[in-house]
What does this fold into?
Amino acid sequence: MLKKSTVFAMLFLSIALMYACSKNENELTAEETAVKFSIPANFPAPGYHFEDNKLTNAGFALGKKLFYDARLSADKSVSCGSCHQQFAAFANLDHKVSHGVNNCQGKRNAPPLFNLAWQKSFFWDGGVKNIEISPLNAITDTCEMGTDIATIITFLKNTAPYPEMFNKAFGSTEINSQLILKSITQFTAVLVSGNSKYDKVMRKEGETFTSTELSGYNLFKEKCSSCHAEPFFTDFSYRSNGLDLVSKDEGRAHITGVSTDVGTFRVPTLRNIEYTFPYMHDGRFYSLDEVLEHYNSGVKASANLDQRLKNGIALTTTEKEQIKAFLKTLTDNEFIKNTLYSES
It folds into this structure.
C-alpha cells in the first residue's frame, strides 16, 4: 500500500505536468521548453554543431543568465544584452558604437547576433575564429565590460544561484572559463533567424511577394547580391565600400597587417536590417535611405575600394523604394519576439 506522502507526491507531479502541458508554447519557461538548435530548410549545414558542447535546457538557461547579467562588468552596469538587444535583433538600437562601462564609447557599432553557428569568424574585422571564445573580447575590452575572466569566476563561485546552475548544466559545481564560454555559446548559437517573409516565400510556405517587393528582390539580385549573398545576405568577406577616402579605422588590417586590408570590414548581414540601425561599422547612417543614397552617389574612391563599387550603384527613387520594400521582407518578427530569448 502506498504511503500518503508518496500519493501526494505523485498527485503533485501529475498536476505539475498537466499545467506545463496545458500552456501554449510561447508561455513555457526556458526549463519547460525543450531547447533545440533548428536549421531552416533553406539554410546550408552550419559550421558549429555542439559536438563538444552538448545543448541542454540547463546549459541554455545558464548561458542566457550570464548574457543578461550586468554584474559581470567592472562597474556592474553593462551586460552582453546591453549592446545586443533582442528588440533590435540583438544589435544596439540607436547607438552608433558600443556603449560600455563608465559611459565609455567604443570604436565600432555592435553587430546583430544571430545565425552565428554559420560564421567562421567574428566581429567587423574577423579577429576571432571561434564562436566559443568570442565573448572574451567584450569581457576584457576597457570600453565594453572592462573586466577579466578570473574576476568573473570569483564572482560566480560566490553568487547564488550560479554554483547550482553550473551543477545542473555540467554536472559539477566547478566554475571555470571554459564552462562559462560554453554556456554562453549554448545561448548565442541557438539564436537562429530564418523565418522571415522572404524565407517563407523561398520555402513555398504560403507567402508571396507583393509586386513592389518582387521588383525589389530582382533589383537586389542584380545590384547587391554579389556581396550580400543569399540565404545569409552576406558572403562573410571583408571589403571597403568607400565610406571615406582615408579610413580612420584600419579595419581588417588590424588583424592581418596587410595594407590592402586597411579600411575593409566584414560585409554585414541584411537580415532584420529594418531594426538593426544605425548602419556601417561606425554607425554613421541611421536610415536605409541614407545607406542606399551612399551607394547611389556617395561612394568614395578609397585606395582599397571594392572594384564592384568603383562606379557606385545607380538607383532611381522608385528603385530605392522597391529595394527597401524587399529588405523589409527579411525581418523575422518571430525571432525578435521569441520570449525564449528574452531576459527573464
